[in-house]
Design goal:
By secondary structure, this protein is an alpha/beta fold. It has 2 domains: about 15-135 and about 290-305, Rossmann fold; about 140-290, Rossmann fold (3-Layer(aba) Sandwich), CATH 3.40.50. It is about 35% helix and about 15% strand. The strands form 2 sheets. A 5-stranded parallel β-sheet has the order 7-6-5-8-9. It is globular and about 55 Å long.
């Protein structure tokens, strides 16, 4: 029976290799669906999914909504600006009231780390973490891994460099756990002020010099610099960050020949990455967006614990 070992997807730390492999393999099936003229299958007909976003989101929210609709699920999108949250309603009460309307799955993004885990204690629905605080963003890392595997055929033995705000990035954390589980070598690079305390506990190579980090790398995944961090004095200026850590054409010479450039978006063009690199032939940034739908379709499907039977997806 094709199913994940957990009813929820809260993060990738501690997730078995077999689960990640199953998600990536299942995503390959759904990626084929996205190439059809009619990009819709009846797989989750009768299932109701709530998209509960307490933080602004464009790519992740739309990607999940499209994934749900293409699986024929019924979807509800929740906006805090027009809800009882504005009147002081708690997260627990909001979700319990919504679940009383017979919701089957909840996709949640929240500014507080641990919010998705908290929801698993409040409701019976399957919970999918779409980003919680500085903790994890598992589906982003899964789509990153799927995109890499689609190009190279494997993740085993590849050298992947994650560049940017390691301290606050939930995307980096999920990528670390997922990539290491699948056999990739992971390096982290960023200013010392944007590296977490005891960063070595991640079990990755750590660099403050971008040129050293890029030597012999296969994949560079560039993270968005959150400009609000500059107000906190964590790096002197945007110009200095660009000079010291920005990914430009000159720095690409240090990478392996068949290298790959990635970015989860949204990009600060000219700050963490130049347009020349972002739009270059080795960039898979737009592929990441398309692949995100396939990966999220796979996660939604597998969390329902159903068999992958012939004709069920098609």
């Amino acid at each position: 029976m094709s199913r994940l070992s957990s009813r929820h997807l809260l993060g990738l730390e501690g997730v078995p290799r077999e689960d990640i492999q199953l998600i990536l393999d299942t995503a390959e099936t759904f990626r084929e669906v996205l190439e059809r003229t009619i990009k819709k299958v009846p797989t989750l007909r009768g299932i109701t999914v709530l998209n509960l976003f307490y933080e602004p989101s464009t790519r992740t929210r739309i990607s999940f909504e499209l994934a749900e609709k293409r699986l024929s699920a019924d979807t509800i999108s929740f906006s805090t600006s027009t809800s009882s949250v504005k009147k002081g309603e708690s997260l627990r009460d909001t979700v319990q009231n919504i679940e009383a309307m017979k919701i089957d799955m909840v996709v949640v993004r929240h500014s507080s780390s641990g919010a998705p885990y908290f929801l698993t204690k409040c409701v019976d629905a399957n919970i999918i973490n779409a980003g919680d605080g500085s903790h994890e963003h598992p589906t982003q890392a899964l789509l990153d891994m799927y995109t890499i595997r689609k190009k190279y055929g494997t993740l085993e033995g590849l050298r992947v460099v994650l560049v940017g705000d390691v301290k606050h990035s939930r995307v980096i954390r999920s990528n670390i756990w997922g990539l290491k589980t699948m056999g990739a070598s992971v390096a982290l690079c960023g200013p010392a002020t944007l590296l977490p305390y005891e960063v070595e506990k991640f079990g990755c190579d750590v660099y403050n010099n971008i040129d050293e980090a890029l030597d012999g790398a296969d994949v560079v995944n560039v993270m968005r610099i959150q400009l609000e961090r500059q107000q906190a004095g964590l790096f002197p200026s945007q110009r200095e960050y660009t000079n010291l850590f920005g990914i430009n054409k000159e720095r690409l010479k240090r990478l392996n020949k068949n290298y790959t450039i990635m970015h989860p978006g949204p990009m600060n063009r000219g700050l963490e990455i130049t347009s020349e690199v972002a739009d270059g032939e080795h960039s898979v940034i737009l592929d990441q967006v398309t692949n995100g739908q396939a990966v999220r379709m796979a996660v939604l499907y597998l969390l329902r614990g159903r068999d992958m039977e012939e004709g069920e997806v098609a």
